[in-house]
């Protein structure tokens, strides 16, 4: 029988504010354990939370970027549950009046059509502490993360395959990066994703919804979803059904493992948070935030295609992050050859950056040095292969391109007289290739060009070589 997969996502993104959501403690990844916390973070008796206005503004920015309606009046709620790293035994979150509702993100399907994934809500809340398990089996608690501001993004169950969910997550990550409300570093826990998944058989039989947690990468999320699709089908085919539960993904075993039964809303016993005043959002604040929103990935992608005449593929790579797109545009301002800049960023720069796992801001050479290298290639001072060698040394040492060109003796031979002498020597030693070319064998011409470049140690200008070689042979 045929099955329809139904997937909804819950994404938690930590916000890039300087301080936490309800106190003045640093909002910063790392640091010695329990050094970024205070009585408010720890939920000590007598401490009172005060909402950080920047958290509200970042939440509105995200909501607008995801096409949401922004609530003019909202509030914080108390969500009651017990985890070892939740000191108060409740979390300050939002329940019935979220800050943002009714948004959407459009993804591109395999057939190039677009699909709208609806966003049910985006709300603000505090993060919990972190449990640390040592080698003796003891569990220690670090409260540096407690009180870090979050937005939780909840989608409608509009995704019908792990691939669609992956595309949505990639799009969501791009938008959050461009709006600069979160750094979305999954390895540091600033972006976390939970999956709700079930299947509907063509005769109407449904599997029970299963929640997947502990997904530390988008690839892990896709693997977990694929595993669950297979597991749900096998159970239904055998006359059984899934249990409504929360499961975790085990990377080492490549399978999901049951954690606990899934909670319902009633289990959390929500009620309005009495220690935080209600929130009133003015139209003026919304318009101010809207006017300051940056150009978002889809808009930038279309502009790059039109303004710089780039292929769609190039445009997608260059707009994958705000850092890369800004770097490209800054280089093009000084060196107006967009396609050449695009090629070098995609093939040489990003390859090495990704191999070394660094940011563009960590490069050892300046943007002006990169521009100088591209100009040297474009003006024929060095050829493309020599340019790659120069770039490698720049990347590894931070040396100036002109210094490398001189030290390595890479200046391209432009003098026609010198090139004619080299060509004549090669022709004298390869009479058969001349005859082959005259008999219509085009590969012979390429062979001769290769011999000339070898004779010149790669320094002869290839365009001049081609022009003079053709002229000489045609006149023989």
TrEMBL record:
<dbReference type="InterPro" id="IPR006075">
    <property type="entry name" value="Asn/Gln-tRNA_Trfase_suB/E_cat"/>
</dbReference>
<dbReference type="InterPro" id="IPR004413">
    <property type="entry name" value="GatB"/>
</dbReference>
<protein>
    <recommendedName>
        <fullName>Aspartyl/glutamyl-tRNA(Asn/Gln) amidotransferase subunit B</fullName>
        <ecNumber>6.3.5.-</ecNumber>
    </recommendedName>
</protein>
<dbReference type="InterPro" id="IPR003789">
    <property type="entry name" value="Asn/Gln_tRNA_amidoTrase-B-like"/>
</dbReference>
<dbReference type="InterPro" id="IPR017959">
    <property type="entry name" value="Asn/Gln-tRNA_amidoTrfase_suB/E"/>
</dbReference>
<keyword id="KW-0547">Nucleotide-binding</keyword>
<keyword id="KW-0436">Ligase</keyword>
<feature type="domain" description="Asn/Gln amidotransferase">
    <location>
        <begin position="326"/>
        <end position="473"/>
    </location>
</feature>
<comment type="function">
    <text>Allows the formation of correctly charged Asn-tRNA(Asn) or Gln-tRNA(Gln) through the transamidation of misacylated Asp-tRNA(Asn) or Glu-tRNA(Gln) in organisms which lack either or both of asparaginyl-tRNA or glutaminyl-tRNA synthetases. The reaction takes place in the presence of glutamine and ATP through an activated phospho-Asp-tRNA(Asn) or phospho-Glu-tRNA(Gln).</text>
</comment>
<dbReference type="GO" id="GO:0070681">
    <property type="term" value="P:glutaminyl-tRNAGln biosynthesis via transamidation"/>
</dbReference>
<dbReference type="InterPro" id="IPR018027">
    <property type="entry name" value="Asn/Gln_amidotransferase"/>
</dbReference>
<dbReference type="Pfam" id="PF02934">
    <property type="entry name" value="GatB_N"/>
</dbReference>
<dbReference type="InterPro" id="IPR042114">
    <property type="entry name" value="GatB_C_1"/>
</dbReference>
<dbReference type="GO" id="GO:0016740">
    <property type="term" value="F:transferase activity"/>
</dbReference>
<dbReference type="InterPro" id="IPR017958">
    <property type="entry name" value="Gln-tRNA_amidoTrfase_suB_CS"/>
</dbReference>
<keyword id="KW-0808">Transferase</keyword>
<keyword id="KW-0648">Protein biosynthesis</keyword>
<comment type="subunit">
    <text>Heterotrimer of A, B and C subunits.</text>
</comment>
<dbReference type="InterPro" id="IPR023168">
    <property type="entry name" value="GatB_Yqey_C_2"/>
</dbReference>
<dbReference type="GO" id="GO:0050567">
    <property type="term" value="F:glutaminyl-tRNA synthase (glutamine-hydrolyzing) activity"/>
</dbReference>
<dbReference type="Pfam" id="PF02637">
    <property type="entry name" value="GatB_Yqey"/>
</dbReference>
<dbReference type="GO" id="GO:0050566">
    <property type="term" value="F:asparaginyl-tRNA synthase (glutamine-hydrolyzing) activity"/>
</dbReference>
<dbReference type="GO" id="GO:0006412">
    <property type="term" value="P:translation"/>
</dbReference>
<dbReference type="GO" id="GO:0005524">
    <property type="term" value="F:ATP binding"/>
</dbReference>
<dbReference type="InterPro" id="IPR014746">
    <property type="entry name" value="Gln_synth/guanido_kin_cat_dom"/>
</dbReference>
<keyword id="KW-0067">ATP-binding</keyword>
<comment type="similarity">
    <text>Belongs to the GatB/GatE family. GatB subfamily.</text>
</comment>
């Amino acid at each position: 029988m045929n099955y329809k997969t139904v997937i909804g996502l819950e994404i938690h993104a930590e916000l890039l504010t300087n301080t936490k959501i309800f106190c003045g403690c640093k909002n910063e990844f790392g640091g010695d354990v329990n050094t970024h916390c205070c009585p408010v973070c720890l939920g000590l008796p007598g401490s009172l939370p005060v909402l950080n206005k920047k958290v509200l503004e970042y939440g509105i920015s995200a909501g607008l970027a995801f096409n949401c309606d922004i609530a003019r009046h909202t509030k914080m709620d108390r969500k009651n549950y017990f985890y070892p790293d939740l000191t108060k035994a409740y979390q300050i979150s939002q329940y019935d009046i979220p800050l943002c509702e009714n948004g959407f993100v459009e993804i591109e399907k395999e057939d190039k059509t677009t699909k709208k994934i609806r966003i049910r809500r985006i709300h603000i809340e505090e993060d919990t502490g972190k449990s640390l398990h040592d080698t003796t089996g003891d569990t220690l608690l670090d409260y540096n993360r407690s009180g870090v501001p979050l937005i939780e993004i909840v989608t409608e169950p509009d995704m019908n395959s792990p691939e669609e969910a992956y595309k949505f997550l990639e799009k969501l990550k791009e938008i959050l990066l461009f709006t600069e409300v979160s750094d979305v570093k999954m390895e540091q826990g600033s972006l976390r994703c939970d999956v709700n998944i079930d299947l509907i058989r063509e005769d109407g039989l449904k599997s029970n919804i299963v929640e997947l947690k502990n997904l530390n990468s988008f690839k892990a999320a896709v693997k977990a979803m694929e595993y669950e699709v297979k597991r749900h089908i096998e159970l239904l085919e055998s006359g059984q059904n899934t249990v409504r539960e929360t499961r975790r993904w085990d990377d080492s075993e490549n399978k999901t493992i049951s954690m606990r039964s899934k909670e319902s809303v009633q289990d959390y016993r929500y009620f309005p948070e009495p220690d935080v005043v209600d929130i009133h959002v003015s139209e003026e604040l919304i318009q101010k935030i809207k006017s300051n929103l940056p150009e978002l990935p889809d808009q930038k992608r279309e502009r790059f295609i039109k303004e710089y005449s780039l292929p769609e593929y190039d445009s997608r790579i260059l707009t994958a992050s705000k850092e890369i797109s800004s770097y490209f545009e800054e280089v093009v301002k000084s060196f107006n050859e967009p396609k050449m800049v695009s090629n070098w960023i995609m093939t040489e720069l990003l390859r090495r950056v990704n191999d070394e796992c660094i940011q563009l801001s960590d490069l050892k050479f300046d943007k002006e040095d990169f521009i100088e290298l591209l100009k040297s290639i474009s003006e024929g001072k060095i050829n493309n292969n020599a340019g790659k060698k120069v770039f490698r040394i720049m990347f590894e040492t931070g040396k100036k391109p002109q210094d490398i060109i001189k030290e390595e003796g890479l200046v391209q031979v432009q003098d026609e007289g010198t090139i004619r002498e080299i060509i004549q020597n090669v022709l004298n030693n390869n009479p058969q290739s001349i005859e082959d070319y005259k008999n219509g064998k085009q590969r012979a011409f390429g062979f001769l060009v290769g011999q000339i470049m070898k004779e010149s140690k790669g320094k002869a200008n290839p365009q001049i070589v081609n022009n003079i070689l053709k002229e000489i042979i045609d006149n023989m």
